[in-house]
Amino acid sequence: MQLYNTLSAKERAALIAKAGKERLTISFYTYAHIGNPEIFRNHLFIHWDELDVLGRIYVANEGINAQLSVPAENFNAFKKHLDSILFLQNVRLNIAIEQSNMSFLKLKVKVRKKIVADGLNDATFDVTNKGIHVGAKKFNELIEDPDTILVDMRNHYESEIGHFKNAITPDVDTFRDSLDIIEKDLAAHKEDKKLVMYCTGGIRCEKASAYYKHKGFKNVYQLEGGIIEYTRQVKEQELNNKFLGKNFVFDHRRSERISEDVIAHCHQCGNACDTHVNCANEACHLLFIQCESCAQQMNNCCSDACKEIHELPFEEQKSLRRGKEVSNKIFKKGRSEVLKFKK
């Protein structure tokens, strides 16, 4: 019985292109007690592989966090399977604002200690004592209130290309880094201000709201469904969109445009740009913002050194990176000293 992906991304992309069928990009999460994550993981893989689901899914004792794509024609069968699982019945599905058939090219269902790497010891506080969930209309009202402090719970490379007006955007590399920084910076307002948080789809705020209530914040709110659901409600209810720029997403699309505002700059020349790319040198793979002009000039690389390597024959490139750790893939998103206009 197949329990793991057997096709390369290139092979899968070719199959998707040949099939010519529309796919839907979806994300969802839920906190629930899962007694045996490994068995649950295998159950999901077997059923979802049959439905041609592709994506990145994390399963843990505390629940599930899923980002995936499914053929539109299989959506009803996929939803039926979700509803057959007690704690996933009628789970909120965040449908991507901008669709792409190539958003995911492999099915990866992984067992993790947590569905979000928050670095917290959940035994030290009540994770069920969460903040107040609000929809787009109430959220818009709250963030116009002078007694509100609005905090972006995402990382620096996410908020750089898009965020809500007047939001605090911590310059952090990880979600865990932001928790203590925000508490320290807002310590004087634990009782007199409303703490309103948002993230991509809501999952980071779910744990953060309980953490901040534990830390003494009296009025804690979170945007239900995050930026993705907010955008849907804004369109559906014809509300004023308060989000500026793009919403960063963790798949091959890299972002969804929410407004026409371009609030970021090319990390190489400083011109207005909000397009994330990965350095074409596979030994680097640095995530950074690059405009079309710099992409052409630098051959899609982040530096002259990477450009020189990328222009070498493929086998020589492989030889140079053999046995070396590609640390930029995880730890240096937009932080390299070669990026002159990274702010």
Q: Can you describe what's shown?
A:
By secondary structure, the protein is of the alpha/beta class. Helices cover 31% and strands 20% of the residues. It contains 12 helices and 14 strands. The strands form 4 sheets. It has a 5-stranded mixed β-sheet, covered by helices on one side. It has a 4-stranded parallel β-sheet with strand order 6-10-9-7. A hairpin with an 8-residue loop joins β13 and β14. The longest helix has 14 residues, at 37-50. The protein is globular. 37% of the residues are buried. The model is unreliable at 327-331 (pLDDT under 50).
List strands and helices in order, with pairings.
Blueprint: H1 9-19, E1 23-31, H2 37-50, E2 54-60, E3 63-71, H3 75-83, E4 94-95, E5 107-111, E6 132-134, H4 136-143, E7 148-152, H5 156-159, E8 162-164, H6 175-185, E9 194-198, H7 203-214, E10 219-223, H8 226-237, E11 243-248, E12 255-257, E13 276-278, E14 287-289, H9 292-297, H10 304-310, H11 314-321, H12 328-331
Provide the low-confidence segments as ranges. 327-331
Sum up the overall morphology in one term: globular
- How large, in whole angstroms, is the Cα Rg? 21 Å
**What strand line-up does the widest sheet have?**
4-1-3-2-5
What amount of the residues lies in strands?
Answer: 15-25%
H and E order:
HEHEEHEEEHEHEHEHEHEEEEHHHH
Query: What structural class should be given to the helix and strand makeup?
Result: alpha/beta
| Total count of strands | 14
The residue-averaged pLDDT reads: 92
| Terminal CA distance | 50 Å
Helix content: 25-40%
Main beta-sheet strand count, sense and barrel state: 5 strands, mixed
Continuous helix count: 12
